[in-house]
Amino acid sequence: MAQQRGPGSLSRLRREFALRAGTRGRGALGLRGRIVGVLLITTVATLVVAALALLGPLEQSLRNNARSTLIHELRANRSKRRFASLHLGEIPLSQSQADQLQSALTQLSQRVNAQLVVVLGNPGPDSPHGQPLLTPNADESADDTYGDVAAAFRTRRANYTFGTIDGKEYARAAIPFTSADQFLYVLAVRKSVDQISGAVAVVRNAFATAALAGLLLAVILGVPLSARIVRRLRRLREAALELTHEGPAVVVPVDRARDEVGDLARTLATMQTRLREQEEARRSFVATASHELRTPLTSLDGMLELLDDDLRYAEPDIEDARALLLRARAQSRRLGRLAADLLDLSRLDAKIDLRSEPVELSELSRAVLAEFELGSADRHVSVKLADHGRSVWALGDPGSIARILRILVDNALRVSPPDSELTVGLDESGDVRVSVCDEGPGVPPEERDQIFRRFHRGRDTRGEAGFGLGLAIGRELAVRMGGELILEDTEPGTGAKFTLRLPPAPATTRTLSTSIS
Question: 171 in the Ramachandran plot: left (φ > 0), alpha (ψ -120 to 50) or beta?
Answer without folding.
Answer: beta
